[in-house]
Write a sequence for this structure.
């Protein structure tokens, strides 16, 4: 046994903490980097341990926070739903769909008919056994007549649902959708509650944690569900989910150790990361900022204007300066390179003042107005200013109109021709394209309408062959890129920070805060407190 | 004392009228804001269909004067209604937060009031001395900083560099009194630093104003010490303005501390009011607005009564 082995053994048995380990290793002439690597690859790092309390801070706060899946809206609601509920399926970190409450599933008739077989013996927190009735009830709450659910539009493709015994559910869609299980795995609204559950009843789910205390807009406390159907998951005893709206308060909480996990502003992430007790996780995602240019009204109905602006942005400079590198360059279609159906062949729209001037001159305009508020992102106005500056080289005058953040989505968005907007990450190309670009979509913010694109969407959804699918999506994405009204300069990383005692945390490209995975994966190691 | 009794009765009647007018103003004000609760809850994800369904569920499809009259009727039956946003009883939602707000204000006032009055007296006693200038400069500095900056500076010193106090003032209802005090230490310090200057400066000015009076000269000629003159002759005669400034600052501690609440993540009423305004949650806005207004009215009434008691001349208006 070498000296290093002895040190590692000491760590594993808990007789030495991380700081002591690094100091002793340094005394043996091992650099801190090498020692940390050793530590992370040792058996010590690999075995999760039960127990501990973790404080999770969320940057949003609203008295409207709820445990009713049909009313959930904020990121905090999503966090809480991941703790106490399960969905039929789940996504792993490579965005593959994996079993959750459903053990297996299969499709028939061009992916219009989906049959899910439920895991047997799953119990709700109150001891009731999960059956297909609960699944039917939970999904129906979103699509029934007077539903106010934000997922109503997405789930409205369901035309029929029936149970076949206690453990089989068959769902029929109005058109084929090969991604349907992914959609169920991603959308936290599809959490399963017991049949007949109404808002106001005690909160009961099948999830890894049981609700103990809940004050909307302040905090919630959950403790481990000892009956959880996954035995190798949910290591932490207690999660406290705390609403902390002030970014500086979150940072201070992280530094002083009153907060263990929190999303952080990309602009301060690197500074926080300098604290040796904090690890920063920056995960490229499909969440994007954009200028929505409405194609049904002047002046942005003119393709020349749209192309002129798309060639005015110094995209990498925006990523570097607005996000301090925590992002990736966008190419005016809403699919990011991490997604399987991302088209690699579409040429990048670069900063090209000559080209921009060429298109601009054809519009005959003297200036163009862009509206923005912080609702579209903390940096939305700064992004406009950067665009305004780089557009000067092409002789384009941009007037920036700052509008109040309060009520932005009502008084500005989809009302004025060009305004700043944003969208969260989606795990498939189909989800974001259908949601925002299909001609008759409720959220078709650019009012861009293209028959060929609509055809391709329907075709792509029901095509199962991956090669053929890729070609279909490539053509659809190219249409959005060239002709569409979305001017997408960059994608934003999800940036989260964890204290050193938090182990097993991984960010997800599909949803900020690891898309619920931390509540199954994370464990606490107070030896790592150093 | 009869005139004092009738004064209180008259002022209470006016208070009720004021509260009524304020409730109308709040109701109209929230109505004038663009959008409604349904819109703000659903945000970017709203569709005409879900909007209509939610409005119907919340009763927002009724004209607003009808909703206001219904709310007013409930208030006369001591029922503040339910929050539109989460269907919790407003009294329940506000109860805990109000308690937290009052606790923070009380602790801050208990420290700030004696400190600033004593500092003011001493500064008046040794006016134009180094001590006077030092106190004035320090308190003016702390009042000139925005309160969130004071908060951050305290946080960096007492929580990050020297971890004496938590950076988040996390209070729960089952907390022991001393734990609670420990938790709110930094917000209390911030508030004290922010309000001391105003009260201290006014105390000093009021005392100095009285010191130029003939009866003070008389007292000096009698051979009284200047400290005794200030406590015995000057202070009672300048109590009225001092009480008024103290009351204004206590009212501020109750209604104006939302920034401090946000920075220290303190679950008080201010944060709830801001959230509810941006949500257009009228019943909660109404209730919090009325509580704030009632606080002002009650404290002003207290100030007037105390001033009258402290100054017999005011009891017999000519």
């Amino acid at each position: 046994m070498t000296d290093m082995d002895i040190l590692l053994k000491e760590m594993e048995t808990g007789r030495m903490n991380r700081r002591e380990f690094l100091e002793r290793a340094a005394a043996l002439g091992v650099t801190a980097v090498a020692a940390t690597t050793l530590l992370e690859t040792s058996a010590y790092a690999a075995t999760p341990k039960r127990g501990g309390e973790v404080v999770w801070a969320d940057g949003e706060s609203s008295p409207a926070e709820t445990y009713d899946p049909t009313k959930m809206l904020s990121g905090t609601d999503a966090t809480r739903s991941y703790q106490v509920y399960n969905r039929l399926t789940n996504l792993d970190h490579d965005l593959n769909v994996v079993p959750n409450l459903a053990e297996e599933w299969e499709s028939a008739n061009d992916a219009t008919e989906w049959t899910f077989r439920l895991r047997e013996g799953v119990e709700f927190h109150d001891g009731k056994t999960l059956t297909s009735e609960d699944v039917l009830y939970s999904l129906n709450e979103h699509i029934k007549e007077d539903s106010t659910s934000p997922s109503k539009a997405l789930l409205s493709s369901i035309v029929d649902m029936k149970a076949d015994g206690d453990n089989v559910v068959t769902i029929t869609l109005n058109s084929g959708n090969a991604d349907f299980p992914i959609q169920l795995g991603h959308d936290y609204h599809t959490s399963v509650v017991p049949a007949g559950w109404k808002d106001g009843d005690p909160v009961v789910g099948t999830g890894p944690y049981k609700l103990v205390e809940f004050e909307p807009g302040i905090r919630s406390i959950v403790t481990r569900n000892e009956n959880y159907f996954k035995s190798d998951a949910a290591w932490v005893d207690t999660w406290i989910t705390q609403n902390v709206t002030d970014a500086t308060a979150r940072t201070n909480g992280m530094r002083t150790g009153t907060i263990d996990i929190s999303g952080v502003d990309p602009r301060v992430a690197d500074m926080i990361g300098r604290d040796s007790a904090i690890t920063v996780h920056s995960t490229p995602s499909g969440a994007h900022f954009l200028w929505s240019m409405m194609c049904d009204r002047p002046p942005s109905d003119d393709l020349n204007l749209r192309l002129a602006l798309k060639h005015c942005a110094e995209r990498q400079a925006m990523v570097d300066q607005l996000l301090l590198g925590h992002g990736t360059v966008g190419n005016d279609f809403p699919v990011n390179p991490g997604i399987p159906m991302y088209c690699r062949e579409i040429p990048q729209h670069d900063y090209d003042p000559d080209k921009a001037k060429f298109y601009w001159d054809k519009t005959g305009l003297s200036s163009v107005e862009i509206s923005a508020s912080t609702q579209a992102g903390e940096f939305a106005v700064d992004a406009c200013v950067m665009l305004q500056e780089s557009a000067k080289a092409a002789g384009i005058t941009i007037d920036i109109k700052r509008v109040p953040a309060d009520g932005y989505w009502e008084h500005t968005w989809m009302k004025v021709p060009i305004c700043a907007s944003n969208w969260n990450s989606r795990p498939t190309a189909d989800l974001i394209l259908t949601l925002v670009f299909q001609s008759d979509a409720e959220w078709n913010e650019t009012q861009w309408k293209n028959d060929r694109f609509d055809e391709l969407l329907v075709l792509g959804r029901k095509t199962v062959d991956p090669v053929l699918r890729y070609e279909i999506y490539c053509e659809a994405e190219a249409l959005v890129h060239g002709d569409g009204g979305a001017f997408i300069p960059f994608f934003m990383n999800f940036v989260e920070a964890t204290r050193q005692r938090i182990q097993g945390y991984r960010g997800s490209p599909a949803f900020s805060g690891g898309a619920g995975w931390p509540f199954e994966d994370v464990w606490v190691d107070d030896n790592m407190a150093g | 004392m009869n005139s004092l009794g009738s004064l209180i009765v008259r002022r209470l009647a006016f208070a009720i009228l004021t509260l009524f007018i304020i409730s109308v103003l709040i109701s109209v004000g929230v109505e004038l804001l663009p959008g409604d609760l349904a819109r703000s809850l659903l945000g970017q994800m709203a569709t005409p269909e879900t909007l209509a369904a939610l409005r119907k569920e919340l009763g927002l499809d009724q004209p607003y004067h009808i909703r206001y009259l219904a709310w007013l009727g409930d208030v006369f039956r001591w029922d503040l209604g339910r929050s539109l946003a989460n269907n919790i009883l407003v009294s329940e939602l506000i109860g805990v937060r109000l308690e937290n707000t009052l606790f923070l204000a009380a602790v801050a006032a208990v420290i700030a009031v004696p400190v600033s009055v004593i500092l003011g007296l001493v500064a008046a006693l040794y006016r134009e001395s180094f001590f006077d200038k030092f106190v004035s400069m320090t308190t003016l500095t702390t009042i000139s900083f925005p309160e969130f900056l004071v908060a951050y500076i305290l946080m960096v010193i007492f929580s990050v560099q020297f971890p004496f106090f938590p950076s988040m003032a996390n209070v729960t209802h089952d907390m022991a009194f001393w734990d609670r005090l420990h938790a709110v230490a930094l917000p209390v310090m911030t508030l004290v630093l922010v309000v001391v200057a105003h009260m201290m400066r006014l105390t000093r000015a009021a005392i100095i104003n009285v010191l130029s009076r003939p009866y003070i000269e008389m007292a000096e000629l009698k051979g009284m010490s200047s400290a005794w003159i200030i406590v015995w002759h000057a202070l009672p005669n300048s109590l009225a303005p001092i009480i008024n400034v103290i009351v204004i600052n206590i009212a501020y501690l109750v209604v104006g501390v939302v920034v401090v609440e946000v920075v220290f993540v303190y679950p008080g009423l201010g944060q709830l009011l801001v959230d509810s305004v941006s949500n257009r949650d009228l019943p909660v806005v109404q209730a919090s607005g009325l509580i704030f207004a009632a606080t002002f009215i009650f404290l002003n009434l207290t100030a007037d009564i105390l001033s009258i008691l402290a100054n017999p001349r005011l009891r017999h208006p000519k």
Observations:
- The two ends of chain A are 26 Å apart (CA to CA).
